[in-house]
Amino acid sequence: MLLSANLGHGKEEDAHEFLRYAIDTLQSACLKEAGTKSSNSLEEETTLTGLTFGGYLRSKIKCMKCGGKSERHERMMDLTVEIEGDIATLEEALDKFTCTEVLDGEKKCKSYEKAKKKLPLLEAPNVLAIALKAISVW
Predict the structure, then answer these.
(1) What percent of the chain is helix, strand and coil (3-state, nearest 5)?
(2) pLDDT tens per residue across span 23-38
(3) pTM of the entire structure?
(4) What's the rounded Cα separation, in Å, for the pair 76 and 99?
(5) Contacts for 79 with CB less than 8 Å, ≥ 6 apart
(6) Distance CA 80, CA 119 (A)
(7) Cβ atoms of residues 36 and 46 within 8 Å
(8) Residue partners of 105: CB distance under 8 A and separation at least 6
(9) CA–CA separation, 46 vs 109, rounded Å?
């Protein structure tokens, strides 16, 4: 079985890309087996792959000028967390991933304003795949 046309001899991929291709291929096989021609959120969530690796993040953004808030749920099949500086454990990396960050120039209030963003885990999957991303400073 061909996992992906994007993976091949002479190409440069990492373990996270391989994992994503593998999960996507499993998901496609599950949807095909179910006889689904077009995927929708409910069908994707209820496949074996969706039930195993699927979870939700809650994206929360608050404008620092007017206090306006937006919130949405984002489907996820894995997490990519950054490991830089003094981060020594997975727990510290996950804490950094879910902490509030300041966005400079978020489109709010009909103009670009500073905003705060938080991305906590809303619903964890049964199997949480985590890719660690090292940040290099040149």
Answers:
(1) 30, 35, 40
(2) 999 999 999 988 876 6
(3) 0.73
(4) 18
(5) 94, 97, 121, 128, 129, 130, 131
(6) 12
(7) no
(8) 112, 113, 114
(9) 38
